[in-house]
Amino acid sequence: MAKITYIEHNGTEHVVEVANGLTVMEGARDNGIPGIDADCGGACACSTCHAYVHPDWVDRLPAKEEMEEDMLDFAYETDPARSRLTCQLKVSDALDGLVVNLPERQI
Ligand code: FES
């Protein structure tokens, strides 16, 4: 279980507990948090689950796989250091306290 803070582009914060094994995308989707569309359902095939990881967390997450890296090319206003596809981030206790900022829009 990890407590994850999702911050919408307008500054609205959502702090939710997400079960281990789910993804950061699923944590947003299952809690009705706006700003993550996840059109492909988590298959790393749409880029609409894009979010910016808080700078403190960038180095604490597993590195991007090539598929995520490629798909991020299609995301809206990416930040090379902070952008991730949240469907590729598996939740575990290690992610407790994670903070992600949601982009102004997806694509
Ligand atoms: Fe489609 Fe993440 S949900 S790439």
Give a summary of the structure in a few sentences.
The protein has 2 helices and 5 strands, in the order E-E-H-E-H-E-E.
Explain how this protein is built.
Keywords: 2Fe-2S, Iron, Iron-sulfur, Metal-binding. Belongs to the adrenodoxin/putidaredoxin family. Residues 2-106 form the 2Fe-2S ferredoxin-type domain. Its cofactor is [2Fe-2S] cluster. This protein has two helices and five strands; from the N terminus they run ββαβαββ. It has 107 residues and is of the alpha+beta class. The protein has one domain: Roll (Ubiquitin-like (UB roll)), CATH 3.10.20.30. The protein has a five-stranded mixed β-sheet with strand order 2-1-5-3-4. β1 and β2 form a beta hairpin. The chain is globular, with a radius of gyration of 12 Å. The mean pLDDT is 98. Residues 25, 38-40, 42-49, 71, 85, 87 line the site of FE2/S2 (inorganic) cluster.
What key phrases describe this protein's structure?
Ubiquitin-like (UB roll); single chain; 107 residues; 13% helix; 2 helices; binds FE2/S2 (inorganic) cluster; alpha+beta
> What is the C-alpha radius of gyration, as a whole number of Å?
12 Å
Can you count the helices? 2
Coarse morphology: globular
Biggest pleated sheet: 5 strands, mixed
Using the coordinates shown, work out and report the CATH topology: Ubiquitin-like (UB roll)
CATH architecture: Roll
- CATH homologous superfamily name? Beta-grasp domain
Give the strand line-up of the largest sheet. Answer: 2-1-5-3-4
Question: What multimeric state do the chains show?
Answer: single chain
Structural class: alpha+beta
Tell me the name of the CATH class. Answer: Alpha Beta
InterPro entries: 2Fe-2S_ferredoxin-like_sf, 2Fe-2S_ferredoxin-type, Adrenodoxin-like, Adrenodoxin_Fe-S_BS, Beta-grasp_dom_sf
Cofactor: [2Fe-2S] cluster
Pfam family, one: Fer2
Family: Belongs to the adrenodoxin/putidaredoxin family.
